[in-house]
Amino acid sequence: MSKLATTLEGFRDQPDEELQQALAKTRDDLFRLQLGQHTNQVTSTAELMTKRRDIARIMTILRARKLGLESQAQKTESTASASLIDTPPAKKTKKAK
């Protein structure tokens, strides 16, 4: 599983209150990184892009929940095993006339 998928899964498993706190913390981290960049103290500029993308991901999840398009993910054994097994759709056969 990729790092992005793991991050998204972690965000989707959190309730709205924790996502709001994570959003505030990430915004604060981004502010500090931007401030450090202007004072030439930041050595990794890639972290700026990562923080901006994390903010966008959190806001997207919160917006989708607000619209009712997404709910908080619940990890269960049956859904985890069902998602691993892909069954191809049944093929339609032509009926003879």
What would you note in describing this structure?
Helix 2 (16-38) packs antiparallel against helix 3. 66% of the residues lie in helices and 0% in strands. Mean pLDDT is 81; it is low at 76-84. It has a domain at 22-73: Helix Hairpins, CATH 1.10.287. With 97 residues, the protein is mainly alpha-helical.
SSE topology:
Elements: H1 3-13, H2 16-38, H3 46-67, H4 77-84
The class by helix and strand makeup works out as mainly alpha
Helix tally?
Answer: 4
Mean pLDDT equals: 81
Which stretches of 5+ consecutive residues score pLDDT under 50? 76-84
- Indicate the radius of gyration in whole angstroms: 20 Å
Looking at the overall shape, the CATH architecture of the domain at 22-73 is Orthogonal Bundle
Percentage of β-strand residues: under 5%
Characterize the overall form: elongated
CATH class of the domain at 22-73: Mainly Alpha
Major sheet, described briefly?
A: none
Reported by name, the CATH topology of the domain at 22-73 is Helix Hairpins
Q: From N to C, what is the helix and strand string?
A: HHHH
- Our measurement of the CA-to-CA distance between the termini, rounded to an integer number of angstroms, reads 49 Å
* Fraction in helix: 55-70%
Total strands: the figure is 0
